[in-house]
Design brief:
It is a single chain. Helix 6 runs parallel beside helix 7. The two termini are 40 Å apart. This protein is of the alpha/beta class and 320 residues long. It has twelve helices and eight strands. An eight-stranded mixed beta sheet has the order 3-2-4-1-5-6-7-8, with helices on both faces. Residues 1-20 are annotated as: Disordered. Belongs to the GTP-binding SRP family. FtsY subfamily. One of its GO terms (molecular function) is GTP binding. It comes from Xanthocytophaga flava.
Length: 320
Amino acid sequence: MGLFDFLKPNKEEQKESLDKGLEKTKESFFSKLGKAVIGKSKVDEEVLDELEEILLTSDVGVATTLKIIERIEKRVAEDKYLNASELDSILRDEISKLLSENRSQDIKNFDVPDTTKPYVIMVVGVNGVGKTTTIGKLAAQFHKAGKKVVLGAADTFRAAAVDQLKLWGQRVGIPVIDHGMNTDPASVAFDAVKQGNEQKADIIIVDTAGRLHTKVNLMQELTKIKRVMQKVVPDAPHEVLLVLDGSTGQNAFIQAQEFTKATDVTALAITKLDGTAKGGVVIGISDQFKIPVKYIGVGEKIDDLQLFDKVAFVNSLFKK
């Protein structure tokens, strides 16, 4: 039994964690929204200008902000006497619709398709976004769900990353394949997939370098890692998970752009939402990249890495 096996959070606890994690975003957002509509009886051009600024300063991003404003303008045109007090419910409605348009499906459990075994996840992202911690928490969640997990410490350019992953492995009670620091990342990835396959693991999670000297180096390294993994499991990786730090706001957009150019990112994890008022970044990134946001980090605890539920996220963001 791993260290975290006894932790079985209920839905109410998870909802509380989400509410607490989005507190700073919510406070900032609603205090600005309240000021924008004070003394206003209807949604006019001035209110919409204020709203545009609020969305931008909440790091929703320019393109997504303009899309939301355009939709609200359309509603205002259809209903000339739209009450300013209704603005938050209209906004909630439009953001919900926007997130629903993303091709992603809300996942209900920490699970992977039964049809693919081992299911190989390659995790990418720059240093400092909480990548290794996210892998540890994800491994713990999968382990708790009864899955056999193997980790590969292929971020070999940073000693802390290898040591940190090994520590997570010990804490959770799952094997970590490592060759130490300054070794060939692709070789580690190969061994992790090979040993995971031999051990009949359900899931193999491979960490990768957060930063190489140039984008070309990064692209080449990730391509090489994919290629060697495919020698063992021909269709690996089944998922490329990009970890982004939500507290960096627009920087997270730039990172998403760079990594989606470097490799075929299929899922996103957005971390550190609890320490920031920039939670709007989740809305913008989900809308702009059309890559499913699969996980969000709303705190330090193991269970604060949550499955991204669009409805729960919007409900929490607009909860007063």
